[in-house]
Amino acid sequence: MRVNRSGWGGAGASLMKLVKLLMACWRAAAAKCVSLALTMMFIDLVNDGFTWDSVSGEVVFGPLTWGIITLAVAAVGVWSLRRRAGAAGIALSAEALDDRQTHVLRPVPVSGGWQERVREELAASERAFLVAEKGHEEIHFRWRPGRGKQSVWGSMSFDAPSGEVVLDVRDGEGLLGVAGLGKGSSFAAVCQIAEATGLESATARG
């Protein structure tokens, strides 16, 4: 078995994850901006007149301009997601924009009564509400990832023998998401919940 001692394999994999995430954020930003971009281009054409020069200019430079703008928005989204993931110890991937997030977490550190501690810290957060236990091994709740009233659905399943928690978060409606992309709210909530309860990803950091 070959062992990569240079570190380039790990660095390359991390770079590819960031590139995939950037492309996913760029697609989300473009989808959010397409109606605005078309409207602005139409207004410019009306103001300039539908001449060959104005139409050809909009066709060439319009998409380029909006491409640069949406790429900048996507870069801000990636930076925000990476910062949140790093602070919470959550693995980061291109799936961070998915509406549903399922992560296996562990208490830090593992100690007696960790399940009760996690429950108490979750319920004590001002972002959590409608917290309800479903038996001793599962808890359901709503979580506000942003400053508004919009929230995501969440649940925790506890496995005491392994010391693991399965955190399942599903996006709600009307959430702005990360950097206004309309996506990433569930991942942001996962990071916030992990920080609030002292849990960390059971897998390697992203």
Structure write-up:
There is one protein chain. Helix content is 50%, strand content 18%. It has 206 residues and is α+β, with helices and mostly antiparallel strands. It has a 6-stranded antiparallel sheet with strand order 2-3-4-5-1-6, with helices on one face. Helix 1 (8-48) packs antiparallel against helix 2 (52-88) and helix 2 packs parallel to helix 4 (185-197). 29% of the residues are buried. Residues 1-8 have low confidence and may be disordered.
Q: Any chance you could write out the topology, listing elements then pairs?
A:
Layout: H1 8-48, H2 52-88, E1 100-107, H3 114-124, E2 128-133, E3 138-143, E4 152-159, E5 164-170, H4 185-197, E6 199-201
Antiparallel strand pairs: 1-5, 1-6, 2-3, 3-4, 4-5
Q: How many beta-strand elements?
A: 6
Number of helices: 4
Fraction in helix: 40-55%
Topology as a string of helices (H) and strands (E): HHEHEEEEHE
- How would you characterize the largest beta sheet? 6 strands, antiparallel
- Termini gap: 24 Å
Question: What percent strand?
Answer: 15-25%
Mean pLDDT: 81
- Which structural class fits the helix and strand makeup? alpha+beta
What gross morphology would you assign?
A: elongated
Q: Which residues form runs of ≥5 with pLDDT under 50?
A: 1-8
In short:
The protein is an alpha+beta fold. It is built from 4 helices and 6 strands; from the N terminus they run ααβαββββαβ.
